Amino acid sequence: MDSNKLHFKMMTFSFKLRDFFSPRRNILKEVGIKLGDHVLDYGCGPGSYILPTAELVGKSGKIYALDMNPLAAQAVQKISSKKGLTNVETITSDCKTGLPSESIDVVLLYDTFHALSDPNSVLKELYRVLKPGGILSLSDHHMNEEEIISKITSSGLFKLSKKGEKVYNFQKKLSEKKE
Q1: How confident is the model at residue 91 (pLDDT cuts 50, 70, 90)?
Q2: How far is CA 144 from CA 43, 140, 147, 162, 166, in A?
C-alpha cells in the first residue's frame, strides 16, 4: 500500500472516530442549508459531510464534493452509491471547480483553508461560483478566530455574517455597483 493510500485510510479512520463523538449534522445546523440548495464541499476528504448535507438539501438539491486527492472522490462515490444518492457529483481539483458562475448557495470549507497553497485564488473561485448573497461556511481548527476572519474578509470578497459555535459563515459581498 503506497503512503498516500495509507495516509488517506488513517485520516478516514480518525474522521469516523471524530464524527462519532461530534456528528457533522450538528455543525451543519449552524450553516442554514435549505431544501433545494446547491452545496460545494470544498476539500471534502473522505466525505464526512456528504450524508448529512444530502439530508438537508433533499433530492431537489445538489452536492459537489471537491478534493485534490482522487481517493477522496472514490470515497464520496462509494458513499453515494451505497446510499443511492443521485445528486452528488465529485470534482478532483486543487482550485478550479469547473462549475458555472453564481450556481452555488453554500460552500463548506472545513479544515482545509490552512493547507491551501494559494488561498487567494481559491477565495476568488469560491466567490465566482457562489450566488449573490451565498454563504461561505468555514471552520479550521488549525487557525484562531482572528486569523480566520482577517484572512477571509481581507480579500474584500466576503463579510462575516454569523459566528456560530463551530463555524464562521461569510456572505458573498455584492460588487460595489450593486450594494
Answers
A1: very high
A2: 19, 8, 5, 16, 12
Helix 50-57 vs helix 70-83: crossing angle, to nearest 10: 50
Residue type at 178?
A: K
Q: How far is CA 176 from the centre of its chain?
A: 26
Output the pLDDT for position 18: 60
Count of domains for the chain: 1
- Cβ neighbours of residue 163 closer than 8 Å, sequence gap 6 or more: 145, 169
Residue range of the domain that includes 138: 34-172
Q: Kindly report the CATH number assigned to the domain that includes residue 60.
A: 3.40.50.150
Structure-block grid coordinates of residue 109 = 470549507
